[in-house]
Design goal:
Elements: E1 11-13, E2 21-24, E3 34-41, E4 46-52, E5 78-80, H1 82-85
Parallel strand pairs: 1-5
Antiparallel strand pairs: 2-3, 3-4
């Protein structure tokens, strides 16, 4: 299948970048590292991979991920969204970040409201 031969054909699977990860680590300390991670696209109807300035993938750069994709030999690769597209439909998806951490078990995920 096409997906089985993806890397041989110069493509990297976009699902490899679902979790935020460093994609560019400059040798020059005065330059910034870049990170790639999943983000909403198409007004909430798509998931795409963005390039970010921070390790939490919250500060979008506007750079193109394909500018940073190279194989072990330094050959430029392209991003394949074939598998990523299979995880969502054409309808809207939630881009809201979910915080699962609830330190005291009261269901407020650490939100604090002062008594009035």
């Amino acid at each position: 299948t096409k997906i089985d031969n993806m890397e041989e054909n110069g493509y990297i699977d976009a699902t490899e970048f679902i979790e935020c990860q460093m994609i560019y680590d400059p040798e020059d300390d005065s330059k910034s590292a870049y990170y790639a991670g999943a983000m909403c696209g198409g007004y909430g109807t798509k998931i795409k991979i963005g390039v970010f300035e921070d390790e939490m993938c919250s500060q979008l750069t506007g750079n193109d991920i394909e500018d940073y994709l190279v194989d072990g030999d330094g050959v430029t690769m392209k991003l394949s969204h074939a598998l990523l597209k299979s995880v969502y439909s054409d309808s809207c998806i939630s881009c809201k970040q979910v915080d699962d951490y609830d330190e005291d078990g009261d269901g407020d995920n650490g939100d604090y409201q002062a008594d009035e």
